Request: fold
Amino acid sequence: NFLDRTLYYVCRAISRLIERPITDEVELPIGRNDNVTDTVNETPPRYGDRYKLSTVYGIFLMNFKEGKLEPKFRTDTVVADRENGRTVNPHFRQIYLQFPYFTKQLEECETLYDKLIYALKNMNEWNRMPDALKEQVFKHLERLAAVANLSEANRVAYDKAVDRFYVSRIYEEDMQDRVENAMREGREKGM
Reply:
């Protein structure tokens, strides 16, 4: 029932786009030690606006051949009119990638897309990434995989560190803008 499950996953992701709290206060997670109040006020959306959806893509990486799909590497599905094939709702797409149908060897991969697909298909067989794939995108992919494999406690610590970094960066940029504005005002007054 793989195709039924993929439909469920995409529908669940779409339903989460409209899940909003009933009140305009959102409770923060328990156990925070950063002296923040227990709730955050949000303006509740208008009822009709709750159903304005972003596009949801279900991208399914399959290390097997699914008998109910065409025997090819990539199958894209949309909600379309049966008679004319025209897309009815652009916010719902499913992309199935059946890796057994991707038969290129590393030497045959010329485009970045081919290299990415090759890496996704074969990464579980490597102790380290082949030198031919050590381009910037694949280094980034390797970092993402390392973060994804963190334990829950380490992931929370990592997320907090990243948040602190970005808050610090925003603060520094804001202070730099303030200093530049103050210097400009001082020069104008001095003139």
